[in-house]
Design a protein that fits this description.
- By secondary structure, this protein is an alpha/beta fold.
- The protein is built from ten helices and ten strands.
- It has helices at residues 24-29, 48-66, 83-86, 125-133, 146-151, 161-181, 193-196, 198-212, 290-301, 322-339; strands at 70-71, 90-101, 107-118, 138-144, 154-155, 186-190, 219-224, 252-256, 274-280, 309-313.
- The chain has a seven-stranded parallel β-sheet with strand order 1-4-6-7-8-9-10. A three-stranded mixed β-sheet has the order 2-3-5.
- It is globular, with a radius of gyration of 19 Å.
């Protein structure tokens, strides 16, 4: 693996799935799946796994060609960022789901917690092995965080959600250890619900996140945001749960700043960790120019040293047309190149 440049480029996680694999019209019309959404796949069993492998290999090639420094597998095999892992856990009843209010309005089907949460098998370990076998660049895999998963289920077993989150964290911890052993360079925990449930987050999110990373050796990241741009249209003026993340065990914090046009001074709230800065507005299908990306990075460099900065899209790119995602990533890579002092 080549050394990373100053201000490396990466994804938050997802990249658009091809239309021959996923029913994009249905994907765009539904809320992100919390249980299973097998109807999204255009390819039937028993050919689906092979088709997902082929689409993942294609995504890896595209991400290499566009020039990203740290790759993911594009989350091509997932119906949503969280349900692939969450629905594989014992204690989750996905066949008899509950209906709850969604984060951005409407209702959503979620698993019912009917027994102790346990991880009984590896979930994303083979995904990491596939990614590692298909690129010699640095690789990152993403997992849903324990706080967010606790908010995407109906608790009918534990005395409180804090207890549920700790058992979810233990399951995440087992997976994190195994995906590092399988070859991951970075493991990212996705915790978008920190921003929509800040009171509960202050009560038990940090202990749960730290339990998820207890004893882990390897570079870890945490992504927090205001939700997919396709789903959540209105952005708040600032983060409701950010400085608190200084107390969590991760090495890197990924945040969105482009769509909400946040003042770069907020980056000062993250004191020592590496910041993965969101510089691509995914609500706008007009790709940024490299100059726009460079200006966003330069504004951040007024607050954060280059050695503590990576750049990425604001959030996952799965809802974008593939040509738009590609053009935005081209601007990301070129914008980062322009601001590096060694260019």
């Amino acid at each position: 693996m080549n050394p990373l440049p100053l201000i490396p480029t990466t994804l938050v996680g997802s990249y658009p799935q091809p239309d021959w694999l996923i029913d994009r019209e249905r994907l765009l019309s539904d809320l992100p799946a919390r249980v299973r959404a097998r109807e999204l796949w255009r390819v039937p069993e028993p050919y689906l796994e092979e088709a997902q492998d082929d689409a993942t290999a294609l995504a890896i090639r595209e991400l290499e060609r566009v020039g990203l420094d740290i790759l993911t597998d594009g989350e091509i095999r997932r119906e949503s960022y969280s349900n692939r892992f969450a629905t594989a856990l014992e204690g989750m009843d996905i066949d008899n789901p509950a209906t709850v209010a969604g984060r951005a309005g409407g209702t959503n089907l979620v698993p019912r917690i009917v027994g102790p949460i346990r991880r009984t098998r590896p979930v994303e370990v083979d995904d990491v092995r596939f990614l590692r076998a298909n690129t010699d660049r640095a690789i990152k895999i993403t997992l849903p965080g324990p706080f967010t998963m606790s908010k995407q289920a109906q608790n009918e077993h534990y005395p409180d959600d804090a207890s549920l989150a700790l058992d979810l964290a233990a399951a995440v911890n087992e997976e994190v250890r195994e995906v590092f052993a399988a070859g991951a360079d970075v493991v990212q925990i996705d915790e978008p619900w920190l921003q929509s449930r800040p009171e509960d987050a202050r009560e038990y999110a940090i202990p749960a996140i730290n339990r998820a990373l207890e004893g882990v050796e390897g570079t870890t990241a945490l992504h927090t945001c205001f939700g997919y741009a396709h789903v959540v249209k209105d952005r708040p003026a600032g983060y409701t749960f950010l400085a608190e993340l200084n107390e969590c065990a991760v090495d890197q914090i990924a945040i969105e700043t482009a769509q909400p046009q946040l003042d770069p001074s907020i980056l000062g709230e993250i004191e020592e960790k590496t910041i993965i800065l969101g510089v691509l507005d995914l609500s706008d299908h007009e790709p940024e120019t490299a100059d726009v990306v460079a200006r966003r990075i330069e504004a951040a460099l007024e607050v954060v040293a280059a050695e503590r900065l990576q750049v990425a899209p604001d959030c996952g790119m799965k809802y974008l047309p593939r040509d738009v995602a590609w053009a935005k990533l081209e601007a990301l890579v070129e914008g980062a190149r322009r601001v590096r002092p060694d260019r």
